[in-house]
Amino acid sequence: MPRLEDAPAHPTADDGTVTRSDTTEPVTVADPADGETHIRPIFAGLLVAMLLGSLDQTILSTALPTIVGELGGVNHMLWVTTAYLLASTIMMPIYGKFGDLIGRKGLFIGALSVFLIGSVVGGLAQNMTWLIIARAVQGLGGGGLMILSQTIIADVAPVRERSRYMGFMGAVFGLSAVVGPLLGGWFTESAQWRWAFWINIPLGIAAIALAAIFLKLPRHDIKIRFDVWGVLTMAVAVTAIILIASWGGTQYDWGSSVILWLIAVAGAFSALFVLAENKASEPIIPMSLFRSRNFVLATIAGLFIGIAMFGTTAYLPTYMQMVVGVNATVSGLMLTPMIAGLMVGAIATGQLASKTGRYKWMPIASMIVLALGLWLLSTLTVATAVWVLLSYLFVLGLGVGLGMQILVLVVQNSFPDSLVGTATASNNFFREIGASLGGAIVGAMFTSNLTSLLAERMTSAGGEGSDFNSLTPAAVRALPDAIRDIIVGAYNDALTPVFVTLIPMVAAGLIAVLFVKEVPLRASRGDTAPS
User: Fold this and answer.
1) Band (170; pLDDT cuts 50, 70, 90)
2) Containing domain of residue 275, as a range?
3) Could you please report the per-residue DSSP string of 290-319?
4) pLDDT of residue 409
5) In DSSP terms, which residues pair with 3 in a beta bridge?
6) How many separate domains does the chain show?
7) CA-angle at 437, arms to 183 and 375, nearest 5°
């Protein structure tokens, strides 16, 4: 049987790829001959974990107005989503590093257990304080669900076979972006919002059972020097960045002292984090990772995809409600073509990479199709037919799907299996930061454009002094045609130019992936990175 050996993560090969030396007793991993019969139940548990982790980023979005009204905490509403995002983002590199050091099975079951504890607390919460605590606890577990799911596959399948499974994981991630808000709304209207938490219990228990029974992974009995300063400086930097993304242009003006201080804190502690990692014996994000060209290029490209995807989808439902005139539920359903495109792209590229071993063209195609999708969305007008809008969304989703999971695979293929968790977590960490910043960037530009256009056009129409902050889709539909047309036109003309401004970032991503070196996908597991 193949053997997986564990050792410190510092040495690097001549080409910049990180390697590991043998300092501990080797441990045995499952033989590839076990085949798909062995992997299927494991993969089912991983998909459930992926679904739980990604669903809980979106499932409360449509239920929040009801939740905060019932619990009496409108002024704390932002923290319900921020607490989860903050905790999960900070925990990503920690789970990745510890998975490489001590093994992933125990961590995976532990992450699921913590996530379920948070779900129980959330389901029982009687005030906003306990709800926010529950979301933070969920995030502490949720940060490991996606990372460990992506890296456990590395323990049971070689890179070339792994690409097939990664495609389905990408599809599940995309699916949750639509299913989450729909489920949250359905629970709120048809049952009770607490079911957004209770649904996690049977699914989480099923995932734990599958992992406990079928997952046979190595355990590494080694001493760990916890990277205290790295974790602390990273936590402060990430907190500042996410608060900037959450508060900028909403709670506080972008030029306010609070936002400027947060920017300064983010910059200072990011620099301190780099210093801490250079001195740590077991850094959670080793700076040696950045000596791998493919890691750097794939991470940059993934960050830009995150900005484009999440920046775009954050405001498309609002656009659909205001411009197309549909309700909140339908606006969520209208994102289905985008998710269909993402699923088609992710699954197809996974299958092709497994069959042919060739993959460099995939992220290149991803950037081109993604840029095309953004350009098409920038051409929308108030008169654009709904089916045309939906077809544009399919193109956008296809662009994301063609590259999202393949870029993770490029990262994993650049390092030995004993570093795959650290590398994957670091890649996802930066993509999550990009997703947060994407929503903030698009939101800032959209809000600025909308405010100026509404003021200008309403003034020209003799509507000075109107309260634009109280506009809702229902209120807009009830306005006289002349005023409604001004508002609808302003929403369209405020958002569509923003799509164009995202294209240069995608172009930068295209330039990055052009320089990715296509290293053959490993057809067997082992602890040696390709040269």
Assistant:
1) confident
2) 228-281
3) GG-HHHHHHHHHHHHHHHHHHHHHTTHHHH
4) 87
5) 28
6) 3
7) 85
In a shared domain, residues 177 and 265: no
Where b means 16+ CB within 10 Å and e means fewer, 483-502 reads: ebebbbbbbbbbbbebbeeb
The residue written with tokens 């508060």 in the block is: 247
How is residue 49 written in tokens?
């974990």
Q: Looking at the structure, do residues 78 and 166 belong to the same domain, yes or no? A: yes
Q: The domain that contains 484 carries what CATH number?
A: 1.20.1250.20
Locus of tokens 């042919």: 356
User: From its phi and psi, is residue 103 left (phi > 0), alpha (psi between -120 and 50) or beta?
Assistant: left
Residues 153 and 190 in one domain: yes
Q: Assign 3 to helix, strand or coil.
A: strand
**pLDDT tens per residue, range 188-215:** 777 788 888 998 999 899 989 988 888 7
Q: Are 522 and 413 in contact (CB under 8 A)?
A: yes
Selection from 420, 238, 244, 400 nearest residue 335 by Cα: 400
Tokens of 315: 């405001």
CA 275 to chain centre: 27
Alpha-carbon distance of 438 to 431, in angstroms, equals: 10
Q: Is 277 found in the same domain as 178?
A: no
CA atoms within 13 A on the CB side of 405: 34
DSSP state of 520: P
Contact (Cβ atoms closer than 8 angstroms) between residue 152 and residue 27? no
Q: Are 209 and 239 within one domain? A: no
Q: Is the dihedral of CA 269, 273, 275, 276 positive or negative?
A: positive
Query: Is residue 58 classed as helix, strand or coil in its secondary structure?
Result: coil
Q: State the DSSP code for 284.
A: S
Above 60 in pLDDT, residue 463?
Answer: no
Rounded Cα distance between 25 and 426, Å, is 27
Looking at the structure, do residues 119 and 69 belong to the same domain, yes or no? yes
Within a domain: 22: no
- DSSP run (H or E) holding 27: strand 27-28
Counting Cβ atoms within 10 Å, is residue 525 exposed (0-12), middle (13-18) or buried (19+)?
A: buried
Quote the CA–CA distance of 265 and 91 in Å, as a whole number.
Answer: 20
Specify whether the CB–CB gap between 477 and 351 falls below 8 A: no
Whether pTM exceeds 0.85: no
DSSP assigned state of 521: P
CA pair distance 502, 19, nearest whole angstrom: 37
233 and 258 co-located in one domain: yes
Q: Does 265 have pLDDT greater than 80?
A: yes
Question: Which alpha helices (H) appear in 15-127, and where do they start and end?
Answer: 35-55, 64-71, 77-102, 105-124
Is 391 exposed, middle or buried, given 0-12, 13-18 or 19+ CB atoms closer than 10 A?
A: middle
H/E element holding 4? strand 3-4
- 473 with 354, same domain? yes
In a domain, 241, yes or no: yes
Q: Residue 12 pairs with which residues in a beta bridge?
A: 18
Q: Give the start-end residues of each E strand in 354-425.
A: none
